[in-house]
Amino acid sequence: MMNILVATDAWDPQVNGVVRTLKSLAKTVRKFDATITFLTPDGFPSVSLPTYPGLRCALPTPGEIAHRIETAHPDAIHIATEGPIGTLVRHYCVKRRLPFTTSFMTRFPEYIAARLPIPEAWSYAALRYFHAAARVTMVSTPSLMADLAGRGFKNLGMWTRGVDTDLFRPERAIDLGLPRPIFLTVGRVAVEKNLAAFLSLDLPGSKVVIGTGPQEAELRRRFPDAKFLGALRDERLAAHMAAADVLVFPSRTDTFGVVQLEALACGVPVAAYPVTGPRDVIANNPVGVLNADLRVACLQALNVSREACRAFALTRSWDASAKQLIAHLRGIAASRSRGVQAA
């Protein structure tokens, strides 16, 4: 049994694709003779982030990080995020010459540039340095891999995402009591998610937002006709998603967008811009519409077959995602084992 330590700054109570991805994988890897131990912000002091209102940043010490790693006795170490926890785990591994992998899961340069006058090139330079020490930097889509390669990132490897098709399925749909068609968006209510582009559209029926975040109060004021339902999880989230007619994914900066697969598993087509994430998930498959005019995408998505959406999602299992992750990490586990034997 291979013991994988995953270091992540993103964890409960956050509700996002990173957290859902990691938790889903923890369940799935057990099928393939592996377990995941998480090194998370739990138990560390924290401070609020001025650029990310509502989120808190863990403040671990190098000694505490070392203790947690050594207590876990991992065969392989994976760093999922580039925050304080990820940075200190990276330092621990580099100092001890331990191989590790990383993943590029969030476009922080674009998020930071949306809030502060910091050029994206500076942030990408910092991230390039961070990931350069990794044996493999895992990315979720071919277009993201091409983008990062063009920015000078090395040792890139694929790690796709999956969906829980037992949790997210059409039969869970409930009656929301709203005029149809129902256009739904799910995610953090923050400027980088570009929700105003969706909420400002002239569309029939109802617009629904699931999620919370720093831009929620502003958007509620600007768009009083939209329904803001707050953060929903698990069965409640699946039931509301399945009740929609179209999932609208207005973000231009997400590296993947797991919520797209969750909607498709519910039989709900996707409307989005033709950018990284939607371009890779939807591509030329008849399960959504990508258009530079988001209104056109929304209206055309109403004609997409819900059965085709569900059938497509059934081919995107977490098993495939887990196998990719384990394949990248088994090489590290083997090299660490050889190093221990040689010592």
Quick structural overview:
By secondary structure, the protein is an alpha/beta fold. Helix content is 40%, strand content 17%. The strands form 3 sheets. A 6-stranded parallel sheet has the order 2-1-5-6-7-8, sandwiched between helices. A 6-stranded parallel sheet has the order 11-10-9-12-13-14, sandwiched between helices.
Tags for this entry?
single chain; 343 residues; alpha/beta; Rossmann fold; 2 domains; six-stranded parallel sheet; 14 helices; 40% helix; disordered C terminus
Structural class of the helix and strand makeup? alpha/beta
CATH domain class of the largest domain: Alpha Beta
Shape: globular
Helix/strand order, N-terminal first: EHEEEHEHEHHEHEEHEHEHEHEHEHHH
Give the domain tally: 2
Radius of gyration: 20 Å
Task: Please name the fourth-level CATH homologous superfamily of the largest domain.
Answer: Glycogen Phosphorylase B
Total DSSP helices: 14
